[in-house]
Structure formats: C-alpha cells, structure tokens
Amino acid sequence: MKNVFSLRAIGSFWIVALASTAPMTWADDGAAPRTVSIAPMAAPDPMLRYRFWPAAEHRQDRDPMPGVLRALILMHSAVANAADDEPNEYEQHFQWNELPLDQLPVDDVHRSLDRFNTSINELMRIENAMKIHYDLGVEALSVNETIGLLLPEFQDMRMLCRILELKARLAILEHRYDEAIETVRIGFRLSEVASQSTPFLVGRLIGIAIAERMLQVVEAAVVQPDFPNVYWALAALPSERLFEVRQAIEFESTLLTKMLPGAPDMSSPTIGQDAAASQLLDLADQAHGVLVGTTSSPDDDHRAAMLMMGMYVAMMAEPSRDGLQSTDVWKNRAGELSDCEAVLRWTSLRLRRFRDQWEAWQTLPPDVFAASQSQRWMLADDSESRDLAVRVARELTPSFQQYLYNLRAYQHRSWLMTIEAIRMHADQTGELPATLEKLSPVPAWDDPIASGPFVYQRTDAEHATLTRASTSGNDVDLTVQLVLKGKS
C-alpha cells in the first residue's frame, strides 16, 4: 500500500483541491449572475507602490526552502501543543477561509493566528530569498522510486497557505491593506517554492493551487471600496514561475521512456530472443511496481512480474507483429522477429507514441487546446484495457484535464486585471466603459482560454456583465454583474 504522502497520492489530492480553487466557483442554477460591486480607484503613485512580488532591489541570492521547512516544523509544534478539547486548527482554518469576509469570527481568528505567530514570522523571512535549491536527486531515481517518492513537506504547504490566506483576509476585513498585500506577496513566494523546488508536475499543481488561493484573496479585496488598485501588482507577477507547467510535463513524460532505457529503436538491427527477453524482464519489474506496487519481498515481486510478462508475451506476440507490419521499417520483416523481440519493439514504439501524443497536445495554444477535447486522445477513455502499454501509460501520464488548471490561473489573473482596469477607467470618467476596447488609461487583459477579450456588455453607466470562457463543461458562474458604486 502506498503512503498517503507519496507523489501519486499528493497528485490525486491536489486534483481535487485545484478543482475547488478555480475563480468564481459559485453555484449556478440558472439564476441571475452574481453581483460584484466595484468602486472607482486610480493607480497608485508610484505605480508599483503595492507589489505582489519582491522589488528587484530587495531580492537576495539565498534559498527560501529552509525557511519554509522551519515554518512547517513550528506550525506542527503549535498544533501539537494545543489543548485536547480545542478544535482541529487545520480544519478550522479551512472552514473560516470559505466564509464571506463579514462572517469571520474575528476574535477566534486573532487567537488562532497568534498561536501560529512564530511559524508565520519564519515564513515571512522567505520574501526576498530568490534562489530555490532543493535537490532530491530525482534524476537518478528509477520509475518506481520516482512515483513512490514521499513528499510530506509539499502536502503540508497547503496548511501554511491556509494560515496566510486567513491572515490576509482578516487584514482586509480590518482595513489593514498594507499587511494584507504583504501577506499575499508571501503567499505567491510560497507558491513559487512549491512549484519550482522539484521537476514534478504535482509540485507545479500545488504551487498553482497556492497562487489561486492568493488570487481569491485579491478577488475579495478589490471589491472593497477603499482597497488600492493592484493592476500593476498583478501585471508584475512572474507567470512563468507561478503558472507554467511545460517543463514539468516534459520531465514527467520521460518516465515512459525511462521504462525502456535499452530498448532498440525502430531502425536498429535485431537483437535476438535472449536479449529481448532480458529487457522484457526489466520492463516487467518496473511495470509491476507501477501497476501493482511493491512488497517487502523483492523475490516475490520479481516472480509475479515474470508471470505477468510471460502471459503478456503469449497474448501480444501476434498482435505485436501485426502492429509492426503497419510501419515502414518492419512491414516486410516483422515475421523474422522472435516473440519476445516483437513484443519488446511494439511495446517500446507504443510507449513512445503515447508519450509524444500526450506531450504534443499540450504544446497547443490555450484556446486551441481547450477547444480540441473531442479530438484529443485520452488514456482515460481506455480505462478497461488489459494492454500493458496502455495501463502503464495511463498510470504515468496525468490526465489532460490537469493541464487546464494552469490555464485557469492565467485566466483568473487576467480577469482580476480587467476588473482593476475598469476601476481605473471609472476613476477617470465616473462611469463604466462602453466597451473593453474603450478602456483608459490601461488596457484590459485578454481571456487566455478564448485568446481574445472577456465578453463585456454594458447596460448603463453603472451596470455591466463580464463573462469568461469555460475551461470545461463543469464551469459555473462564468458571468458576473458588475455594479459601479461611489468612492468610499
């Protein structure tokens, strides 16, 4: 049985967690759009007076990870020292962060945050530490060692995120806006640490989830009538460090080719029955670990893997020859191959095809990718397959849906920047813009899912609707009603 802190288990957890952090996720039962009240607000002077990312002159060449790890230790210590009759702090923070700002139990929140003060102070020290170096030696790990890697510190970063989120929300409620912005800045730094400390996609997803929670805090802030305009603070966020998943996708795609390090390529000479059988046994050991897991008895695992591979060769020998005959290289020579070599070559080719197909689709621009669901080949569609290559590929490649999570983060930031651009325009003109193209003094940002502007329709000088593109069939609250209020 795999530990709950394994790479795979954390990935499963954060798939669920990310699904709950997409912007504007409110129930949509066909009722009128949710109303969002905004007030006119000019850009600050100077424009980057408020920052969600450290200014260049403050950045330091030191590692933030020690500070994060110390904050985690102090956080767990605070919980361990709590009285037995006190509620679970982690669960309490989660529940409080789901409440509207005006429903926060202020005194209880203050007391809880006081208990975590030493952990918070330690975390605040990572603000300007920009050199992330957390070498887990993952490049040297086998496939099974990689997917079984324990990462409890990444699981626990979500708890630090909840503390920061609660601290920032309380500061917003109490109009301590400088403190709220500083706390959000630390949250984005924590997001980068989670995202960039390892090459794993799960690290990127955790980082994106943390960034999304910070964007949710900003969303709660910008509807406060006297909250400063943070258009430029949002623009200055390094999206390639916080939201981008391309490098992680490329790294994880290597797990498939890592299954067959010595497998012959399509044009190489035949290697014979014995050499092919030896490589298939190596593949069997790795595939058994991926599909079944490992036990305390390596010998028993190896025997089970040998049995699995023997059955697989018997089942796939002829289909493998038929498959190879469909290729230019082997169409006239597949019959020359032994059973083991035919299965090895066909399995190797299919794993490489799966890897390339999975990686290639995710190189498309966001709007093309989001619109191509019916054309994308998805391993999940073949969930009942007994084919070893399909089963291994399905286990080692995350679903295409995970790619959309980073697009949602890009979209959420652009959505907030568009609202802030509208607030600037209203400060200059006293009304909502006629169209997004008529905005001044700063432009709205496009919806990255649609690769075009958000859909905006003004009803009158004080009312308009703003609509974002859907990233899946399950998106809700795609449209909100903007209502312009007077300055505080």
UniProtKB/TrEMBL annotation:
The keyword Signal applies. Keywords: Signal. Residues 1-27 form the signal peptide. The keyword Signal applies. This is Secreted protein.
